[in-house]
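Quick start: what a row looks like.
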Amino acid sequence: MHLLALNPTDSVTEGFLPAAARLGLAVTLLTDQPEAHERAYGRQDHAFPALDIVPCDVRDFAEVISRIAADGRPRAVFTNSDHLQTQAALAAEYFGLPGKDWRAALRTKNKAELRRALAAAGPDVADPVCSPDPVWSAELATGQEPATLAGLDAPYPCVVKPREGVASEDVVLVADADELVRRCVEIRARRPGAALVVEEFLDGELRTLETLGDGRTLHVLGGFRTELSPPPHFVEERLHLLPAPLPQPHTDQVLAQLRALGVGFGVCHTEYVVQGDRARLIEVNYRAIGDQCDLVLAELLGIPLFEYVLRTHLGEPLPDDLGARTDGRVRMEYVLADRAGRLASAPPASVTQRDGVRLDYRPLRGVGEEHPLHRTNRDFLGVLRATGTDQGRIDAAVAQFLAAHRWEIV
């Protein structure tokens, strides 16, 4: 299997690579950061497959195809990177292998194209309750000056974000036209020439839908309710697993919109807002949910989730019934830095179990490290994974853990 990656992630290190080993696969890892991967895997306790780390400009699909071709005919091409789905899909198609439709990968990554595709799908698919275009949006293309947005007839407050952005980086709520232009200028200073999207602010409960398909069958794995930091920024603070079966009619509406986008192969993480009976898409991430939620989901469902994902890319059909458990509950609590500075003190990694609740705390920033304030998930100091079958006990255990520990930034 050829696996495309940028920086090392928990999903690959703890999920997909061990799954490849269990499937007996040898892995050629193509990456533009080979040294980082060498360091990451050298200090892990997981069982890895036979692994060949190869330098490659993985953002260039032509280079990816050329490098894979030099190895001989591949068996599978896979990536879990937000940034590399289109490249992996094009490579898989070039070699006649199972994979995602590259058009679907592109239109989900490109937030302006996603809005256009849903609008073109019509009211019966994109939003059964309301208008053909469920979310108002506009695009500031590469080369266009932010000042051109001054006269935009936008529904303020609205949200501005990078067109191909991830992890809420440079996503901000703006109150009026002056702030919109100012924020776009600020983002362009950090991302020269970046295309931006301006969208209607979707106020309401934020949820996710996690799906897995083989092109024939599309399984709903589960969903989360997400709590964010207060506007104008949108940083995830905690997630709760939504009990099965997932709420209707929202789940069916999201699935209809995914079908309209051509999404249905492999794993997908979709974010949407609930407004009454309407499910309004925020974004579609055509990969597994991150920040360790995928690891917890596999544990709670009691299924070989990462193996299933890889098997789809090997051309194997999914079972009609995944055999997933439905009694598990989880709370993902992210400890956030509230200021720039040096982390002076923080609790170490720990795993405890009491009253039917398992607490797994993992530091994400080392004591002594100094960082700016990003207002993204790069501000996470640590993640607490609380699992069990009783949500009340889980919430109480999390509250006790947070009260008993201190994170100090100086």
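That is the whole record. Residues 122 and 132 are 5 Å apart (CA to CA). The two ends are 46 Å apart (CA to CA).
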